[in-house]
């Protein structure tokens, strides 16, 4: 029996809930470059780099790597960024 990572299952479930309407409208041709999506999400949070890193649970150095396009954010990291952006948007409303 295959063991699944509970954190990945939680992230997947949260993403399905948060983005259920959006996921129906996105087509494969609309998929963005991970670096472009990172830049959009990073700016969308309005957080300083150290606060953003803390929210993501990563080092400031890794955020700098993403910003300089030396390291590509993973799909899971991009999902977490989307959730952080949505949570910040909802909390300010």
Automatic annotation (TrEMBL):
Is DNA-binding included in the keywords of this UniProt record? yes
Q: Name it.
A: HTH-type transcriptional regulator
Keyword terms: DNA-binding, Transcription, Transcription regulation
The organism encoding this protein is Lelliottia nimipressuralis
Tell me the domain of life.
Answer: Bacteria
Q: Which NCBIfam families match?
A: PRK10072.1 (NF007481)
Pfam families given for it?
HTH_3
Which intervals hold domain HTH cro/C1-type? 38-79
Looking up PROSITE patterns in the UniProt record yields: HTH_CROC1 (PS50943)
InterPro entries hit by this protein: Cro/C1-type_HTH (IPR001387), HTH-type_reg/antitoxin (IPR052359), Lambda_DNA-bd_dom_sf (IPR010982)
GO terms of molecular function:
DNA binding
Gene3D superfamilies in alphabetical order: lambda repressor-like DNA-binding domains
């Amino acid at each position: 029996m295959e063991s699944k990572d509970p954190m990945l299952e939680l992230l997947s479930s949260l993403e399905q809930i948060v983005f259920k309407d959006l996921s129906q409208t996105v087509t494969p041709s609309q998929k963005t470059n991970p670096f472009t999506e990172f830049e959009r999400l990073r700016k969308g949070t309005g957080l300083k780099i150290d606060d953003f890193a803390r929210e993501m649970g990563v080092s400031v150095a890794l955020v700098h790597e993403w910003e300089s396009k030396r390291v590509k954010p993973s799909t899971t990291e991009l999902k977490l960024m989307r959730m952080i952006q949505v949570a910040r948007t909802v909390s300010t409303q």
